[in-house]
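Structure (tokenized):
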């Protein structure tokens, strides 16, 4: 299904969105988990960025499988594929945590404004902020491992080949 766009593998295009959005999701989830000031304006945005990252992660995984059929299964490609299969689920988990945190935070604020509850966060919210930090760290580790294995799979052969007449500075 996901193979090429204008002759370029979709995976090579979409993976860049994942590489940019995953760290953004990590930073936003960390900030939302620990900063009241950040929560005040970013709850829905943290969840939306996480959802977008989840979408691109699933597309990257699917398009990576299509690309894998074209390039073959070396050990490096196999390692990258195995790590990459997990990434969309890690992102989805972090996004769900972000969404639940946002919901609980809004519910708590609404109850405090209406005089129905305390202004302080609930125990569940506090526990989920720790889960949010752990989810963010897990996502950071996973996206780093996937990205590193993908770079190794792509560039390992390039570094081992000698470039003939490649326009270097030492040419006259």
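Design, position by position:
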């Amino acid at each position: 299904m996901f193979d090429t766009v204008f002759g370029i593998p979709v995976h090579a295009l979409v993976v860049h969105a994942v590489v940019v959005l995953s760290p953004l999701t990590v930073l936003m989830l960390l900030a939302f988990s620990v900063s009241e000031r950040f929560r005040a304006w970013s709850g829905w945005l943290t969840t939306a960025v996480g959802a977008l990252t989840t979408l691109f992660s699933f597309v990257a995984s699917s398009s990576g499988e299509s690309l894998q059929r074209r390039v073959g299964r070396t050990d490096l490609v196999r390692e990258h594929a195995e790590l990459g299969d997990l990434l969309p689920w890690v992102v989805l988990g972090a996004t769900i945590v972000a969404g639940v945190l946002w919901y609980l935070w809004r519910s708590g604020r609404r109850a405090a404004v209406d005089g129905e509850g305390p202004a302080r966060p609930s125990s569940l919210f506090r526990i989920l902020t720790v889960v949010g930090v752990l989810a963010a760290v897990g996502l950071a580790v996973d996206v780093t491992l996937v990205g590193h294995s993908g770079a190794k799979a792509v560039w390992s052969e390039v570094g081992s080949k000698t470039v003939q007449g490649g326009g270097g500075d030492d040419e006259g």
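Reviewer-requested clarification: The CA atoms of residues 45 and 81 lie 30 Å apart. Residues 4-156 form one domain.
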